[in-house]
From TrEMBL:
UniProt xrefs under PANTHER family: NITRATE REDUCTASE MOLYBDENUM COFACTOR ASSEMBLY CHAPERONE (PTHR43680), NITRATE REDUCTASE MOLYBDENUM COFACTOR ASSEMBLY CHAPERONE NARJ (PTHR43680:SF2)
Keywords: Nitrate assimilation
Membrane-crossing segments per the record: none
Protein name, per record: Nitrate reductase molybdenum cofactor assembly chaperone
Organism: Paenibacillus enshidis
Listed InterPro entries: DMSO/NO3_reduct_chaperone (IPR020945), NO3_reductase_chaperone_NarJ (IPR003765), TorD-like_sf (IPR036411)
Length: 187
């Protein structure tokens, strides 16, 4: 079961994940950005801090080079979360359509040039959407979080093999997702 209150409380961290998973820009590494994005006790903080520390040692050009070689030229590190499971099958198209409908239900306009399973876009949706007043949010978000969990699992394994600093970022994202799911009590 999705704990929408916890997910909502963790919204600032999804903004951080979204920005850090897009092509790097100097504004993404403002010294205060990390601290503003994680409230005390956030389950992702130690992972985000490890990522942040590694990135602070690099120039923007080095970060951009790592990003490009990792996400643009490495099939195993695709930022499209349904790609790992479905590649280009008909089922993937159906999942993409469902995600697009979900985003629109909560007021997000899809950029024409982007697929709805693009990880930074999914994180941006969780950061920007308002769902607390919607009683259907837990059911509606079940698919979204399942796609994120499945896709980031494969991505995390590939980043670990590469010893990429992005491993820590995705690990933090997974911890955030895990904190947003509560186990149903046995009946």
């Amino acid at each position: 079961m999705i704990d929408v209150k916890t997910l909502y409380d963790l919204k600032p961290s999804f903004g951080f994940f979204s920005r850090q998973l897009m092509y790097p820009d100097k504004t993404d590494f403002h010294p205060d950005f990390l601290e503003r994005s994680f409230l005390p006790g956030n389950p992702a903080y130690t992972h985000a801090r490890a990522y942040w520390s590694l990135m602070q040692e690099l120039s923007l050009e080095e970060i951009q080079e790592i990003y490009t070689s990792t996400f643009d030229f490495n099939k195993d590190c695709a930022l499209y979360m349904t790609y790992f499971k479905y590649e280009d099958s008909k089922e993937r198209g159906q999942m993409l359509a469902k995600l697009k409908i979900l985003y629109e239900m909560f007021g997000l306009e899809m950029p024409e040039e982007e697929l709805p399973d693009y990880l930074p876009l999914m994180c941006e949706f969780l950061y920007a959407a308002e769902w607390m007043a919607n009683p259907q949010a837990p059911d509606n978000f079940r698919m979204l979080l399942a796609i994120l969990e499945d896709g980031t699992y494969h991505l995390l394994k590939a980043l670990e093999r590469l010893r990429s600093p992005y491993f820590h970022l995705v690990k933090g994202l997974r911890e955030t997702l895990k904190a947003s799911v509560r186990q149903e009590e046995a009946r």
